[in-house]
Amino acid sequence: MLEGSLVSDAPDSLIEENLLVRHREGDPLAFRALVQRYRAPVYGYLIRCGVAEADRDDLFQEIFLRIHRAAKRYDAERALHPWVFTVVANAVRTYHHKRKVASGVFAEVPEHEPRDTKPDGEHVASVRQSLARLEVELGRLAPVQREVLLLAAVENVPQKDIAEALAIPLNTVKTHLRRARLKLIHALAGRPRRDEETT
Amino acid sequence: MRTECERTLELLASEGAESLEKDAEAAAHATTCEDCRAFAEAAGELDEGLAALPTLDAPDELVERLLARSELQRRSRLRNPWLLSSVAAALLILVGGYALYAPMSERVSGPVGVAGSLGDSTSKDDPKAEADREARELQDRLDYIESAKRRLESEAQGAPGDAYYDFLLADVDDKLDQQASSRDLRSREPARRQNEIAEGALGKDEVGVSSGVAGGLPAAPPAALLARSAGLVPTLGRLEFLEPSGYWANTYLPGDPQTRLLAARLAALDESARFRSWPGDLHERVVRVDEPFDAPESRALSLYFDADRAGVSEPTRMIVQVGLKAADRHARRRPSMNLSLVFDLRGALPLETARKFRALALAFAEARESGDQFRLLAPGQELIGPDAFDRDRLAPLFEGSARTAEASLGATLEQALRAVADAEDAEAVLGTSGVVLVLAQPLGGELAVLERLASRSAVSGIPLSVIAVGGTLPAEVERIALAGQGSRWLVDAPADAARVVDAELAASSRVVARAVRLRIRLADGVELVNVLGSHRLDAPAANQVREAERSLDERLARNLGIEADRGEDEDGIQILIPALYAGDTHVILLDVVVPGAGPVGDVTARFKDIGALRNEVARAGLALASGELAEGPLQTNVWKNLLAHRLSEALEAAGDRLAHGDPATAIERLTVEREAFRAAAADRPQLDDADLHRDVAMLEQYLTLLHAGVASDRVASDYLATSLWYASRIKVQTPLALQ
Fold it and tell me: If we measure between CA atoms, which residue out of B328, B318, B418, B389 comes closest to residue B114?
């Protein structure tokens, strides 16, 4: 087992920023602590963004190694949390882009198994209150809506940082977020979605 | 104009359920409107759900691997940019320089690389000038390393307590001491040094190799002999590193006509009975390494990644090994086959050859089952179609001496491919359609055409196997079978036909994994010296492999429903094995230099599991502990495979020299190998076992015969050469290849 977190009682944000700076300055334990802090959020993000199981471990390592290498370019004035998720979001986007290209060029089989988007009334009734249902509905969102929602609502990345990370206007972030939530609300309420929401 | 429902919904979507608390109008609406109340509840549920999504944590072992890789990356970063080019490089130079400049007494006892990378340091033209030049170079290197050390010390001050700096500095100090000692010693013994140079150092007389003198084998050859070319401990030296990426040649092929050909030659030569009176059993004594890999229980293959040692404490050259073990499943009943047989019956075939062709054709007829579609083609014509493929119709074709026209074999092969493709059931299992090319004579200029066709055939999902009739074309057989992703067989006598046909037809039901893509990725800082027995493919060959893989991928997706997942190159060394057979093992050895303890790399095998009908990935990682640790069975297994590889090469080389009428060099090669094996047993007790003793005894038998002068007789020399070649192949072949 890995050793536990090395963080103390100091506020999280301060500790995190210190971690990357300490790592940059050569503290051999700082990066380990950083990985411990972000291993679950990053791994969960990869799963929820549809990174295939066969590729997940490689991408997970690649993300942290990028952070490892990019530490010297980290602007200590910038909050660490959104900076980390900028790296994560971009790595996931690149991954999906490559998969899409490969799938378009090399295979007739769709990249992911098409999912049944028609709600099964009985099933919905039984799992409506459950998180499992929410996970399912998250998986049905358009990729960009899903990533914006996960970053904003799960990882608590500020919307302006999401806009910067994904290189899209702030208002577009808001639109994606609104649409994602709307879809999920409809789904959880058991109501059919309107056409305008199928972006 | 928006309705109140729409406004409420927008509010809930944009700001969540809590927004109703701030908007009384919307809240009031939600209490009266059933839909909006449901939406508000769903919004609340969403907010709570998002906040309570379960943690999906990364596995501990993944995090451990990541941290290990990052640590090595950190070390590399510490060494870069200047450290990489000075200290690390300097360490290499120092060790290489040490071997070059050390006095003889030190040089002969020091180890050298497996690849024999120790260069000959002497210049024969002007010994004194050469010695002066070397002295200047040595001093320059010392200055350079001193300078690097000062910079290292400076950087180390910024990282107090960092063990890595301590390690580097200690190592540099050691090397500097050695280098300085070497310089001092040289300065004290200039006369001897110059004499050595003038005499060419390490001459044959000095190493004690006798040339073909009966009974003249030295009981204990001088250490110099071992040091020069038989050192088993890989070291740093003058190394050129290869890029550990791109596509590399697959070395796993089922079936081996060359071995069967050699066995047949030995049997034929043995009929004279003169060799039976020779002492010893020569090639009969050879045994292959018993790989200790456990067969997988729940999937088609298991993967192993090991090194020849468990830990290191400094930059080290070493052998790492990738091992594959296929599931040991029972063969299923074979499916119906759609086959085109192409017999090269051109020209006036000797009667014996014609009999072999006949035996093959009849064996296919005997093996035909309900549902099979076999057809027989020869250059210029289709001799027998699927409806008439039976013994009664086939047998007359091979009576008498009249044979087919001198048509192009390539055109006939194309015709055969078209026939298979036309008759193919698109839903049939991969491997149930194929072409079998049967050859009896050298192909000359047609070889390239046939290779291209074979590759095209494989890409379109129709593997092409080759059967050699007689024994003059194994190299051509191998090239075509490789391109066609098929098997290769030899029919040296009519009696072989049934066995070969059964094996060829059973091949598709013995496959447990297809499209096995090995990706070997070395960790940062680990350098590749060589992939033993393989080579990096050039661009056209790599493209051929890509296309073949894509074809397999699509075909298996279409026919077996295994999702297509290929098409993208990966980083690292990539090797594609088209099909892996039940119960088989395969080993790939890599010669590498590691910077020290830590990760060496990882291996991934992506494959199509034919039993489970799904994509599978096997992974294995390798990291070295710090310090010298006791070797376990897996490390010993790597050494055994390395010894087997070396022995195989030595036997083949000795056979080659004998065939060229050069028994003296054959003796030297075998002597070196025998002493290397003895040294290995002395150095590593765990290698000192019955298998090694058998190998040494076999080498001694060959040497005894050679020293007795038997090679002066042409037939005896042929027999010995064939025996050496045969033993060479048996030593390293996979079990399936020997069937």
Answer: B318
Interface of B with A in 130-189 (CB under 8 A): 158-159, 162
Task: Name the 3-class secondary structure at B468.
Answer: strand
Show the beta-strand stretches assigned E in B251-404.
Answer: 301-307, 311-312, 316-326, 338-343, 373-378, 381-384
Other CB atoms within 10 A of residue B158 CB = 10
Which residue from B54, B63, B568 is facing A35, i.e. has the nearest CB? B63
**A177 contacts in B (CB within 8 Å)?**
14
Greatest mean pLDDT range, B50-54, B232-236, B253-257: B50-54
- Min Cα–Cα distance to chain B from A16, Å: 18
Cα separation of B435 and B444, whole Å? Answer: 21
Asked if A107 lies within 8 A of B65 by C-beta distance, the reply is: no
Q: Is B14 on the interface with A (CB under 8 A)?
A: yes
Tell if the CB–CB gap between B66 and A65 is shorter than 8 Å. Answer: yes
Which positions 31-70 of A are in contact with B (Cβ < 8 Å)? 31-32, 35-36, 39-40, 42-44, 47-48, 54, 57, 60-61, 64-65, 68-69
- A74 interface with B at CB cutoff 8 Å: no
Judging contacts by C-beta atoms under 8 Å, the chain A residues touching residue B619 are 57
B208 CB neighbour count, 10 Å cutoff: 15
Of residues B727 and B407, which shows the higher confidence score?
B727
Q: At what angle do helices B34-51 and B4-15 cross, to 10 degrees?
A: 0
Q: Which tens digits make up the pLDDT trace of A45-95?
A: 999 998 888 889 889 988 998 888 778 777 777 788 888 888 899 888 888
Lookup: tokens for B133:
């030049």
Helices assigned H by DSSP within B16-162: 19-22, 24-32, 34-51, 60-79, 82-83, 89-101, 104-107, 127-157
What DSSP line would sit under B662-699, residue for residue? -HHHHHHHHHHHHHHHHHHHHH-GGG-SHHHHHHHHHH
Contact status, residue B427 vs residue B559, Cβ threshold 8 Å: yes
Determine the Cα–Cα distance for residues B347 and B406; give it in Å rounded to an integer: 7
pLDDT in tens, B346-398: 887 788 888 899 999 999 999 888 778 899 998 888 889 988 898 888 888 88
pLDDT confidence band for B490 (50 / 70 / 90): confident
Looking at chain A, how many residues does it have?
A: 199
Q: Name the minimum distance, in Å, from the CA of B77 to any CA of chain A.
A: 9
Which of B36, B45, B556 has the highest number of chain A CBs within 10 A, making it the mutation to test binding with A?
A: B45
* Confidence band of A111 (pLDDT split at 50, 70, 90): very low
State the pLDDT at residue B714. Answer: 84
Q: What percent of chain B has pLDDT over 90?
A: 17
Interface test with B, best of A188, A196, A197, A199 (most B CBs within 10 A): A188
> How many Å lie between the alpha carbon of A143 and the closest alpha carbon of chain B?
17
Question: Rounded to whole angstroms, how far apart are CA atoms B561 and B547?
Answer: 20
One-letter identity of residue B191? A
| Burial letters B39-52, b for 16+ CB under 10 A, else e | bbbbbbbbbebbee
Q: pLDDT tens digits, residue range B10-31?
A: 888 888 888 888 888 888 888 8
Label residue B11 exposed, middle or buried (CB < 10 Å: 0-12, 13-18, 19+).
Answer: buried
Do β-strands B433-439 and B464-469 pair in parallel, antiparallel, or remain unpaired?
A: parallel
**H or E segment to which residue B530 belongs:** strand B527-531
To the nearest 10°, report the CA torsion of B379, B382, B386, B391.
Answer: -80
Q: Tell whether the model's pLDDT for residue B259 goes beyond 90.
A: no
Q: Do B53 and A64 touch (CB under 8 A)?
A: no
The predicted model scores a pTM of 0.48
- The string of DSSP codes covering A111-138 is SSPPP--S--HHHHHHHTTSHHHHHHHH
- What whole-number distance in Å separates Cα of residue B282 and Cα of residue B719? 11
